[in-house]
Write a structure and sequence with these properties.
Radius of gyration: 20 Å
Distance between the termini: 34 Å
Shape: globular
Helix content: 10-25%
Structural class: alpha/beta
Oligomer: single chain
Protein backbone atom coordinates (compact mmCIF):
# COMPACT_ATOMS: atom_id res chain seq x y z
CA UNK A 1 0.00 0.00 0.00
CA UNK A 2 1.39 3.38 -1.04
CA UNK A 3 1.81 6.06 1.64
CA UNK A 4 0.98 9.55 0.38
CA UNK A 5 1.34 12.76 2.39
CA UNK A 6 -1.09 15.56 1.48
CA UNK A 7 0.00 19.04 2.59
CA UNK A 8 -2.70 21.72 2.46
CA UNK A 9 -1.50 25.32 2.18
CA UNK A 10 -4.80 27.11 1.47
CA UNK A 11 -6.06 28.78 -1.67
CA UNK A 12 -9.35 28.48 -3.57
CA UNK A 13 -9.30 24.70 -3.20
CA UNK A 14 -9.64 25.25 0.57
CA UNK A 15 -12.23 28.04 0.40
CA UNK A 16 -16.02 28.31 0.22
CA UNK A 17 -18.09 31.05 -1.41
CA UNK A 18 -20.62 33.09 0.57
CA UNK A 19 -24.13 34.02 -0.65
CA UNK A 20 -22.70 36.90 -2.68
CA UNK A 21 -20.18 34.60 -4.35
CA UNK A 22 -17.20 36.06 -2.52
CA UNK A 23 -14.48 33.61 -1.50
CA UNK A 24 -12.30 33.74 1.61
CA UNK A 25 -10.43 31.30 3.85
CA UNK A 26 -12.63 29.79 6.54
CA UNK A 27 -11.87 28.49 10.01
CA UNK A 28 -11.87 24.93 8.66
CA UNK A 29 -10.53 23.50 5.43
CA UNK A 30 -13.47 21.83 3.59
CA UNK A 31 -11.04 19.17 2.33
CA UNK A 32 -10.60 17.93 5.91
CA UNK A 33 -14.05 16.31 5.84
CA UNK A 34 -13.61 14.59 2.49
CA UNK A 35 -13.67 10.80 2.34
CA UNK A 36 -10.98 9.82 -0.12
CA UNK A 37 -11.79 6.89 -2.44
CA UNK A 38 -8.36 5.25 -2.18
CA UNK A 39 -8.62 3.47 1.16
CA UNK A 40 -7.84 0.02 -0.28
CA UNK A 41 -4.82 1.19 -2.28
CA UNK A 42 -3.32 4.28 -0.67
CA UNK A 43 -2.68 5.24 2.94
CA UNK A 44 -3.20 9.00 3.17
CA UNK A 45 -1.84 11.38 5.79
CA UNK A 46 -3.05 14.97 5.62
CA UNK A 47 -1.64 18.09 7.26
CA UNK A 48 -2.79 21.71 7.14
CA UNK A 49 0.66 23.29 7.01
CA UNK A 50 -0.75 26.75 6.09
CA UNK A 51 -4.14 28.26 5.32
CA UNK A 52 -3.12 31.17 3.13
CA UNK A 53 -4.38 32.63 -0.15
CA UNK A 54 -1.52 32.21 -2.59
CA UNK A 55 -0.79 35.98 -2.89
CA UNK A 56 0.17 35.70 0.81
CA UNK A 57 2.74 32.98 0.10
CA UNK A 58 6.36 34.17 0.15
CA UNK A 59 9.68 32.33 -0.30
CA UNK A 60 9.70 31.92 3.49
CA UNK A 61 6.63 29.67 3.29
CA UNK A 62 8.05 27.95 0.21
CA UNK A 63 11.18 27.08 2.20
CA UNK A 64 9.12 25.74 5.11
CA UNK A 65 7.17 23.59 2.67
CA UNK A 66 10.40 22.32 1.11
CA UNK A 67 11.75 21.42 4.55
CA UNK A 68 8.57 19.50 5.45
CA UNK A 69 8.73 17.53 2.21
CA UNK A 70 12.43 16.77 2.71
CA UNK A 71 11.57 15.39 6.14
CA UNK A 72 8.79 13.24 4.66
CA UNK A 73 11.34 11.54 2.42
CA UNK A 74 12.77 9.92 5.57
CA UNK A 75 9.39 8.97 7.08
CA UNK A 76 8.51 6.12 4.72
CA UNK A 77 6.35 8.36 2.53
CA UNK A 78 6.06 7.29 -1.13
CA UNK A 79 4.82 10.59 -2.54
CA UNK A 80 3.66 14.08 -1.57
CA UNK A 81 0.72 16.15 -2.81
CA UNK A 82 0.58 19.89 -2.10
CA UNK A 83 -2.68 21.81 -2.43
CA UNK A 84 -2.08 25.48 -3.18
CA UNK A 85 -3.78 28.64 -4.41
CA UNK A 86 -3.38 29.08 -8.14
CA UNK A 87 -2.12 32.69 -8.33
CA UNK A 88 1.43 31.77 -7.27
CA UNK A 89 1.21 27.99 -7.57
CA UNK A 90 3.73 27.89 -10.42
CA UNK A 91 6.31 29.77 -8.36
CA UNK A 92 6.02 27.51 -5.32
CA UNK A 93 6.11 24.43 -7.54
CA UNK A 94 9.25 25.64 -9.32
CA UNK A 95 10.91 26.60 -6.02
CA UNK A 96 10.34 23.03 -4.81
CA UNK A 97 11.60 21.68 -8.13
CA UNK A 98 14.86 23.59 -7.73
CA UNK A 99 15.44 22.76 -4.07
CA UNK A 100 14.26 19.15 -3.62
CA UNK A 101 16.10 16.05 -4.80
CA UNK A 102 14.02 13.62 -6.87
CA UNK A 103 13.76 11.15 -3.99
CA UNK A 104 9.98 10.83 -4.23
CA UNK A 105 7.18 12.20 -6.42
CA UNK A 106 5.93 15.66 -5.48
CA UNK A 107 2.71 16.89 -7.09
CA UNK A 108 1.17 20.35 -6.68
CA UNK A 109 -2.50 20.99 -7.40
CA UNK A 110 -5.24 23.51 -6.73
CA UNK A 111 -8.66 24.64 -7.90
CA UNK A 112 -10.25 27.47 -9.84
CA UNK A 113 -13.65 27.07 -8.17
CA UNK A 114 -14.25 26.91 -4.43
CA UNK A 115 -15.59 23.87 -2.63
CA UNK A 116 -19.27 24.84 -2.71
CA UNK A 117 -19.47 26.30 -6.23
CA UNK A 118 -21.23 24.48 -9.06
CA UNK A 119 -18.63 22.62 -11.08
CA UNK A 120 -16.03 22.78 -8.33
CA UNK A 121 -12.80 21.25 -9.63
CA UNK A 122 -10.89 20.92 -6.37
CA UNK A 123 -11.73 17.37 -5.36
CA UNK A 124 -11.17 16.01 -8.85
CA UNK A 125 -7.80 17.76 -9.09
CA UNK A 126 -6.84 16.47 -5.65
CA UNK A 127 -7.78 12.90 -6.53
CA UNK A 128 -5.83 12.96 -9.79
CA UNK A 129 -2.85 14.50 -8.00
CA UNK A 130 -2.92 11.67 -5.45
CA UNK A 131 -3.13 9.12 -8.26
CA UNK A 132 -0.14 10.72 -9.95
CA UNK A 133 1.95 10.90 -6.77
CA UNK A 134 1.32 7.19 -6.13
CA UNK A 135 2.40 6.15 -9.63
CA UNK A 136 5.96 4.75 -9.87
CA UNK A 137 6.46 6.51 -13.21
CA UNK A 138 6.11 9.89 -11.46
CA UNK A 139 9.51 9.44 -9.80
CA UNK A 140 12.55 11.21 -11.26
CA UNK A 141 10.44 13.69 -13.21
CA UNK A 142 10.87 16.66 -10.91
CA UNK A 143 7.99 18.43 -9.24
CA UNK A 144 4.75 18.05 -11.19
CA UNK A 145 1.62 20.19 -11.46
CA UNK A 146 -1.61 18.23 -12.00
CA UNK A 147 -4.71 20.19 -12.98
CA UNK A 148 -7.67 19.41 -15.22
CA UNK A 149 -6.40 15.86 -15.98
CA UNK A 150 -3.08 17.18 -17.36
CA UNK A 151 0.38 16.64 -15.90
CA UNK A 152 2.82 19.51 -16.33
CA UNK A 153 6.41 20.09 -15.36
CA UNK A 154 6.79 22.71 -12.64
CA UNK A 155 9.62 24.22 -14.67
CA UNK A 156 7.50 25.47 -17.54
CA UNK A 157 3.82 25.46 -16.53
CA UNK A 158 2.06 28.79 -16.07
CA UNK A 159 -1.38 30.16 -15.25
CA UNK A 160 -2.89 31.49 -18.49
CA UNK A 161 -6.46 32.46 -17.59
CA UNK A 162 -7.91 34.26 -14.60
CA UNK A 163 -10.90 31.97 -14.03
CA UNK A 164 -10.97 29.06 -16.52
CA UNK A 165 -10.50 25.60 -14.99
CA UNK A 166 -8.12 24.81 -17.87
CA UNK A 167 -5.89 27.73 -16.90
CA UNK A 168 -2.62 25.85 -16.39
CA UNK A 169 -0.72 25.41 -19.64
CA UNK A 170 2.84 24.82 -20.75
CA UNK A 171 3.60 27.18 -23.67
CA UNK A 172 5.93 25.87 -26.37
CA UNK A 173 6.43 22.42 -24.81
CA UNK A 174 2.99 21.20 -23.66
CA UNK A 175 2.07 18.79 -20.83
CA UNK A 176 4.29 15.77 -20.14
CA UNK A 177 1.41 13.42 -19.29
CA UNK A 178 -2.30 12.85 -18.73
CA UNK A 179 -4.51 11.31 -16.08
CA UNK A 180 -6.66 8.91 -18.09
CA UNK A 181 -9.57 6.63 -17.17
CA UNK A 182 -7.34 3.65 -16.49
CA UNK A 183 -4.38 5.42 -14.95
CA UNK A 184 -1.60 7.93 -15.32
CA UNK A 185 0.22 8.13 -18.66
CA UNK A 186 3.50 9.97 -19.24
CA UNK A 187 4.67 10.97 -22.71
CA UNK A 188 7.82 12.99 -21.96
CA UNK A 189 10.56 13.47 -19.39
CA UNK A 190 12.57 16.61 -18.68
CA UNK A 191 16.32 16.85 -18.69
CA UNK A 192 17.74 16.45 -15.20
CA UNK A 193 17.84 19.48 -12.94
CA UNK A 194 20.50 20.94 -10.66
CA UNK A 195 19.29 20.72 -7.06
CA UNK A 196 20.07 23.52 -4.58
CA UNK A 197 19.29 22.32 -1.04
CA UNK A 198 19.12 25.83 0.43
CA UNK A 199 18.44 26.51 4.11
CA UNK A 200 17.62 30.24 3.90
CA UNK A 201 16.10 32.51 1.26
CA UNK A 202 17.50 35.81 0.04
CA UNK A 203 15.31 38.87 -0.22
CA UNK A 204 15.22 41.85 -2.59
CA UNK A 205 15.28 39.93 -5.86
CA UNK A 206 13.12 42.03 -8.17
CA UNK A 207 11.11 41.52 -11.37
CA UNK A 208 10.63 44.38 -13.86
CA UNK A 209 8.70 44.29 -17.13
CA UNK A 210 9.90 46.25 -20.16
CA UNK A 211 7.46 48.27 -22.26
CA UNK A 212 7.45 50.70 -25.16
CA UNK A 213 8.79 54.05 -23.99
CA UNK A 214 10.26 52.61 -20.81
CA UNK A 215 12.64 54.94 -19.00
CA UNK A 216 15.38 54.21 -16.46
CA UNK A 217 13.40 55.21 -13.37
CA UNK A 218 12.32 51.73 -12.17
CA UNK A 219 15.79 50.31 -12.60
CA UNK A 220 17.38 53.32 -10.93
CA UNK A 221 15.05 52.93 -7.93
CA UNK A 222 16.26 49.40 -7.26
CA UNK A 223 19.95 50.15 -7.79
CA UNK A 224 20.63 49.79 -4.09
CA UNK A 225 23.25 47.93 -2.01
CA UNK A 226 20.43 45.78 -0.58
CA UNK A 227 19.36 44.50 -4.02
CA UNK A 228 20.38 40.89 -4.60
CA UNK A 229 19.25 40.51 -8.19
CA UNK A 230 16.99 41.79 -10.96
CA UNK A 231 15.03 39.94 -13.62
CA UNK A 232 13.83 41.94 -16.63
CA UNK A 233 11.07 40.72 -18.92
CA UNK A 234 12.53 42.17 -22.09
CA UNK A 235 10.94 42.96 -25.43
CA UNK A 236 10.81 40.36 -28.18
CA UNK A 237 13.79 38.04 -28.34
CA UNK A 238 15.56 40.01 -25.59
CA UNK A 239 15.86 43.75 -26.24
CA UNK A 240 15.48 46.94 -24.18
CA UNK A 241 14.89 50.62 -24.96
CA UNK A 242 18.28 52.39 -25.24
CA UNK A 243 17.48 54.88 -22.50
CA UNK A 244 17.48 52.04 -19.93
CA UNK A 245 21.07 50.97 -20.67
CA UNK A 246 22.88 53.30 -18.20
CA UNK A 247 20.64 52.00 -15.40
CA UNK A 248 21.34 48.39 -16.41
CA UNK A 249 25.06 49.14 -16.44
CA UNK A 250 24.83 50.75 -12.99
CA UNK A 251 23.27 47.57 -11.59
CA UNK A 252 26.02 45.44 -13.14
CA UNK A 253 28.73 47.81 -11.86
CA UNK A 254 27.42 47.24 -8.32
CA UNK A 255 27.77 43.47 -8.78
CA UNK A 256 24.01 42.96 -8.93
CA UNK A 257 23.11 40.12 -11.32
CA UNK A 258 20.72 41.16 -14.08
CA UNK A 259 18.78 38.35 -15.77
CA UNK A 260 16.86 38.71 -19.02
CA UNK A 261 13.83 36.77 -20.23
CA UNK A 262 11.32 37.58 -22.95
CA UNK A 263 7.92 38.99 -22.09
CA UNK A 264 6.54 36.77 -24.88
CA UNK A 265 4.87 33.61 -23.55
CA UNK A 266 6.36 31.43 -26.30
CA UNK A 267 9.97 31.12 -27.40
CA UNK A 268 13.23 31.94 -25.62
CA UNK A 269 15.35 35.03 -25.03
CA UNK A 270 18.37 35.20 -27.34
CA UNK A 271 21.11 37.66 -28.26
CA UNK A 272 19.86 38.15 -31.83
CA UNK A 273 19.71 41.89 -32.53
CA UNK A 274 22.87 43.96 -32.84
CA UNK A 275 21.60 47.49 -32.31
CA UNK A 276 21.62 49.84 -29.31
CA UNK A 277 19.65 48.05 -26.59
CA UNK A 278 19.60 44.82 -28.59
CA UNK A 279 20.38 41.42 -27.15
CA UNK A 280 23.93 41.34 -28.54
CA UNK A 281 24.88 44.50 -26.63
CA UNK A 282 23.09 43.38 -23.47
CA UNK A 283 24.94 40.08 -23.42
CA UNK A 284 28.27 41.85 -23.98
CA UNK A 285 27.45 44.06 -20.98
CA UNK A 286 27.14 40.98 -18.77
CA UNK A 287 23.37 40.48 -18.67
CA UNK A 288 22.43 36.81 -18.11
CA UNK A 289 20.02 35.36 -20.68
CA UNK A 290 17.63 32.84 -19.11
CA UNK A 291 16.07 30.55 -21.68
CA UNK A 292 12.62 28.98 -21.54
CA UNK A 293 11.39 30.52 -18.29
CA UNK A 294 8.89 33.31 -17.77
CA UNK A 295 9.69 36.27 -15.55
CA UNK A 296 8.29 34.90 -12.30
CA UNK A 297 10.06 31.56 -12.76
CA UNK A 298 13.36 33.25 -13.64
CA UNK A 299 13.05 35.33 -10.46
CA UNK A 300 12.59 32.15 -8.40
CA UNK A 301 15.63 30.59 -10.09
CA UNK A 302 17.76 33.68 -9.46
CA UNK A 303 16.55 33.85 -5.85
CA UNK A 304 17.45 30.19 -5.27
CA UNK A 305 20.88 30.63 -6.85
CA UNK A 306 21.65 33.69 -4.74
CA UNK A 307 20.33 31.92 -1.64
CA UNK A 308 22.70 29.04 -2.38
CA UNK A 309 25.63 31.47 -2.31
CA UNK A 310 26.25 31.48 -6.05
CA UNK A 311 27.75 34.49 -7.80
CA UNK A 312 29.65 35.37 -10.94
CA UNK A 313 30.09 32.67 -13.56
CA UNK A 314 28.56 29.98 -11.35
CA UNK A 315 25.33 31.95 -10.96
CA UNK A 316 25.30 32.79 -14.67
CA UNK A 317 25.60 29.11 -15.59
CA UNK A 318 22.88 28.10 -13.15
CA UNK A 319 20.36 30.75 -14.19
CA UNK A 320 21.26 30.81 -17.87
CA UNK A 321 21.26 27.08 -18.58
CA UNK A 322 17.91 25.80 -19.80
CA UNK A 323 18.23 22.32 -18.27
CA UNK A 324 19.50 23.32 -14.83
Amino acid sequence: MKKILVLHTGGTIAMSADEAGNMAPGAQNPLDDYNYPFADEIELTTEDIFNLPSPHITPVQMLALKQRIAKAAHEGIDGVVVTHGTDTLEETAYFLDLTLPNELPVVVTGAMRSANEIGSDGLHNLETAIQTASTPDAADKGVLVVMNDEIHSARYVTKTHTTNVATFRTPTFGPIGLVAKHGVVFFESLLRSTVCPIQTVADNVFLVKAYAGMGPELLEAITQPSTNGVVIEALGAGNLPPVTLPAVQALLDMGIPVVLVSRCFNGIAQDVYDYEGGGVQLKQMGVIFCQGLNGQKARIKLLVGVSAGMSGDELARFVGTANS
